Amino acid sequence: MREVNWNNVKREAPKWFRDAKFGLFFHWGPYSVPAYQNEWYSRNMYCKGLEQNQYHEKTYGSLHDFGYKDFYDMLKGEKFDPDQWASLVKRSGAKYAGAVSEHADNFSMWDSAVNPINSMNYGPHRDIVGECTEAFRKQGIRTVATFHHQWLWGWFMSTDNEADVYIPENEKYYGPALPLETNRYIPYRYPDEAFCKSWRDKVLEVIDKYEPDEVYFDSRTCIIQEDYRYDVAEYYYNTRGIKDGIITYKQEDYPKDIGVYDIECGRFSSPKDFPWQSDDRLEDNITWCMVQNPKYKSAERIIHQLCDIVSKNGNLLLNVGPYADGSFHPDAVRILEEIGDWLALNGEAIYETRPFKVAAEGPTTVDDANYDVGKIQEQLDKGDAVDVHSDTLTAQDFRFTTHGDALYAIAFGWPEDGEFRIRTLRKGGALDGEIKKVTMLGNEGELAFYRKEDGLYVKAPEKKPCDCAYVLKIN
Predict the structure, then answer these.
(1) What's domain 6-382's architecture?
(2) pLDDT > 60? residue 317
(3) Which of 11, 74, 169, 300 could be stapled to 33 by a disulfide with Cβ–Cβ 3.0 to 4.6 Å?
(4) How buried is 45 (Cβ within 10 angstroms: 0-12 exposed, 13-18 middle, 19+ buried)?
(5) Where are the domains of the chain?
(6) Interatomic CA distance for residues 399 and 361, integer angstroms
């Protein structure tokens, strides 16, 4: 293994990323065809006895006669319209977006010369990443390319000896046969040189062809040899010199100074002095892809989550999975539009903001949380995804952001007595100096207020300007 010098690829988060706050990405691939339970179907269908395996054999037949490769051409994408996707992103208020470039299943969603198993040669016969990149940029949306393909090492290894993954001519679809233990999070047998090279070359090809503004790596990237991980960062930042490009990573898969730390379905209890990202899902099932009976979180829940994350110096990258035909469920579209309506009115308190010295006030305790190695291993062991529960914020909870000389206090409820009380902004509290005026975004005119030793009191306007959360602007 070659020696590397990570100091050569240190990179701070660019201003666009710190200002954007909200992004969307889309899990779409052959796993969207069975749409059963979650996107780990491609792995779990090969694990005898798991529910997805039993469903597969009952619905499609034996693993010898109908394998994952047989879903490829069922991913027709006949309703895929990148301009509609871009319009949905724009309408939601998201500032950056991208389709999953490659999940763990060796199916590249771009026109790849590195990997013949791709969306041009199979399924929709279209360059999904390329078409999305072009459509998004036309609408002024920054692009993200997400990579999960380090999981391919051992992903398809089956407990069924007759499964099609062990037929030699199918190696191009599933990779070479490996010991079963390689499908653990940290295997004894690490990826060989050929696998690491292929992993790197796929990423470099996407960088060359599409110049994504963000290159996102899912967890388990740590199993790739260090020099190949370094090659990606060096090429992206220095050789190609992607202007304002940034890598995001999980766990300790990259050194902390070379990009932005990402916590899956995660949050922090307090503001951080470094920018970070949480990737989470709109889906209220424990899935990142479309499933047969989809259900979604409410707009209010996502808006509250976004406000909490932004107040602590983070971004939210939200996933929604389309159908196999490339269209979105009407409920998902409606909720994204509701989020967009809120941001259209209140985005001043989100976009381009920075944390206040205090992030939060209220009775709800928000603890540090992450879909960490323990939860990943639990999913590997049981075959079932696990959840990271988020706390429900109440009408007594506030979040704070700043921009210029303005402080924004975001209230998660409407006061029953007609008066907001913010203890953090009391006389002698966290806010120095005199308050000159208080307004509410979406409401005309100034609001009456007074300040005492136990809080800042602000008279609520007669009508709510919106739903979900209410923004007091304090100058």
Answers:
(1) Alpha-Beta Barrel (3.20)
(2) yes
(3) 74
(4) buried
(5) 6-382, 414-474
(6) 7
